[in-house]
Structure prediction request, 429 residues.
Amino acid sequence: MIIKLFDHLSSYKNSILQMKSKIVIHFLCIVLNILNVFNETIYLNSFITHLLIPYICTQKFLMTKAQRTPALLLLQDGTVFHGKAAGKIGTTTGEVCFNTGMTGYQEIFTDPSYYGQLLVTTNAHIGNYGIKDSEAESKDIKISGLVCKNFTNEFSRPMADNAIQDYFERENMVAISDVDTRALVRHIRDKGAMNAIVSSETTDIDQLKKQLAEVPPMEGLELASTVSTPQAYALGDPHASHRVAVLDFGTKQNILRCFTSRDCYVKVFPARTSFAELKAWNPDGYFLSNGPGDPASMDYAVETVKEILKENELLFGICLGHQLLALAMDIPTYKMHNGHRGINHPVKNIITGKCEITSQNHGFGVSPDAIDNNLDKVEITHKNLNDNTIEGIRAKNGKAFSVQYHPEAAPGPHDSRYLFDDFVKLMET
Prediction:
């Protein structure tokens, strides 16, 4: 019986090798278990020699073929890191930054706040649990490129829809793997955020330096309108208890889900929508979303926020929205040395005295000195426990508040979800 089984398997070896790897692996494991049950040591060895080993070798070749092309990362200060190509073969540029999160790489890839940035992941393995389309925070990848240690095409999660290599090729995303990311992160931490270029189509340093020199710095860039929705759209139950007008500077989908799950009907407006148009929809509250770029370059949004404040309307901001609220109250922002990006940042709620573990992604901050000079109209509600930077503010004479971090974070942490509840409660008063 076992002889016939092995002969049958061997005759279909080529077909088996063409199957998706995870299916084949499960299939081979089942066969090995069957052979083991029958204690067919001879046939087990033959099976391993003639079918399993050739399969593994073939898969190893297929997995690495697209990644055997040399690639390099060139930083603005002239530092070079070598690695291997991943994703699409090509060249890409952006501000290089690092994220310390252990999970949630797909959320990061698709977060519009990362638009224009080359992402360095400190977690050693990226791609190991695959890609699931429903977990994206926007319709496509927003990072400019990826820098990682291990670009893991094989994934273990049964519910995943795609491998990361297929996903990046579909999205035309350039990446570099096999980089000493520890050394790179230490370099960025010490030298600060800077522009960089990744290429797997040329290793000519002089040519890449010329391309990199043409990339504008993040400071001064207005990027929010680039990633904003081109036209307004609504989500949720039109008969819900509350109506929230969202100014979209690059909003994440989970923010919208956090609203709709709390009996809110949401309408998302383009970044440059006027206050008059927002007000005409008759919302119970206004929300300022996250987004990329320098908030100081967004005069159009600052003016809109000032009008909302003048009307003493209920207002909630996250990340870029937090910075815009500060600017609207004449509190300037500044470019941080290397920003905060990760899912493990401790923040103290000054009001309650409790500590929250938060998800963060920002390269600009709100000036603490300016807040100290404007305590008649604004108060600090949250502070970062790592460096004492401002993480939350609240208008003293109105109903506006904001946080620098991301309470909607998916897959987590969820410590700060109460902020959405607070916003809903204020709409009920």
